[in-house]
Structure formats: structure tokens, C-alpha cells
């Protein structure tokens, strides 16, 4: 009987400590994940700034075909403003996987890109 009391007391002391440790570890993982994600966003933001004023193809993980074609006009903290033939489009940096300048032939003219 006395052993079961000690076990109950032990569990009442240890279980809350283990729960706090688990929560703390989960918070640390969440903070580190957010820092890593922001670092990647900063890299993409710096890359996008190199293409301001140039005709580009922006590849995304969303959208019907995953490609946005147009001239990059501005890069903000969370997105890219792209001027297209039919208007302006904003693309979230979190969804951008790749940016490249529009391909050109040897004469400097734009190559045709088929949809």
C-alpha cells in the first residue's frame, strides 16, 4: 500500500515536469522552423530584387500552371509585384520556387515560350 502512495506522489511530481519539457521542446522547434523559413524567404527576396525591371518567368507551387510571366516591378517583404500584359499580379514569396529571366536567342530577341 505504501509503495502505491509513493508511486502516486512520484507521478504527480514527475508528469507535470515531463509535460513542461515536452511543451518547451515543441516551442523551440516551432521558433527554429520559423527562423529557417524566414531565412529562405530573405534569400528569395534578395534573388527577386536582382530581377526588378526585367522580364521574367516566376515558378510557383500554386496556380493553374505554376508559372507567372511578366516584368518584376517591385519586391516587398512578403511578395513580388509582376506586371503582365493583362494587368498586375502579386505573388507570395513563400510560394515562389524559382525565378529566371526570360530566355533570349542569339540576336537578343525573346524566345517563344509555349504554355
Amino acid at each position: 500500500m505504501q509503495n502505491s502512495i509513493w508511486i502516486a506522489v512520484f507521478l504527480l511530481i514527475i508528469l507535470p515536469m515531463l509535460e513542461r519539457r515536452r511543451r518547451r521542446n515543441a516551442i523551440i522547434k516551432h521558433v527554429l522552423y520559423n527562423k529557417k523559413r524566414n531565412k529562405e524567404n530573405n534569400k528569395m527576396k534578395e534573388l527577386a530584387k536582382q530581377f526588378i525591371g526585367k522580364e521574367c518567368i516566376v515558378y510557383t507551387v500554386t496556380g493553374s500552371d505554376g508559372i507567372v510571366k511578366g516584368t518584376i516591378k517591385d519586391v516587398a517583404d512578403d511578395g513580388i509585384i509582376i506586371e503582365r500584359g493583362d494587368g498586375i499580379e502579386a505573388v507570395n514569396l513563400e510560394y515562389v520556387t524559382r525565378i529566371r529571366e526570360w530566355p533570349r536567342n542569339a540576336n537578343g530577341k525573346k524566345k517563344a515560350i509555349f504554355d
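The two ends are 77 Å apart (CA to CA). The domain at 1-103 is CATH 2.30.30.100 (SH3 type barrels.).
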